[in-house]
Amino acid sequence: MVTDPRTANGSSRRKGNPLDERTFEIILSRYSEDLLPYGWRLKAQQLGVATGTIDLLYHDVRGLRHLVELKKGPATTAAVDQVLRYVQSFASDRTRCVPWVVAHRIPPEIARYAQSRGVHTLAITAEACKEALLTRGTDPRIRVDASAAECRSAYWREG
Q: What is the span of the domain harbouring residue 31?
């Protein structure tokens, strides 16, 4: 099972400062084509299901559902277990669901744990997010206020 398509071992390409989880989620929802596998289209964000709240739900060009659990900083075994619970919510549906844990860093032991349970992992650093913003002409100091969903200027969190 492939983890991060950009690195064989699931580790991140660059070191970077962590984003808060909400900002990370918004960047991935807006710029998925720059940061996630080819052909993914966002279908839902913060989707409530019987087993919890899925951070991001994508469909790909083959019609597969990709359930994404985001974690700022390093991925954990708890995140792997959490996304597996989300898959159970779709058990009666015939559409295949692919569970993912996306985090700033995927420690090797977590990558092994996830792989042994059929969960894909992807490391996306804060620096990669910042690059995606710059590529699109967005000032990386802009952040979305989670409560009002309005853009406002704020300094990129350093350190």
A: 21-153
User: Pick from 43, 47, 59: which is nearest to 96 by CA?
Assistant: 59
Q: How many domains does the chain have?
A: 1
Taking the chain, what is the end-to-end CA distance rounded to the nearest angstrom?
33
- The pLDDT of residue 40 is above 70: yes
Question: What Cα–Cα distance (Å) separates residue 58 from each residue in 14, 28, 44, 54, 147?
Answer: 25, 11, 7, 11, 23
What are residue 132's phi and psi, to 5 degrees? -60, -40
CATH of the domain at 112: 3.40.1350.10
Task: Specify if 66 maps to a domain.
Answer: yes
**What letter does residue 151 receive in the DSSP assignment?**
E
Model-level pTM?
0.74
Percent pLDDT > 70 in the chain is: 75
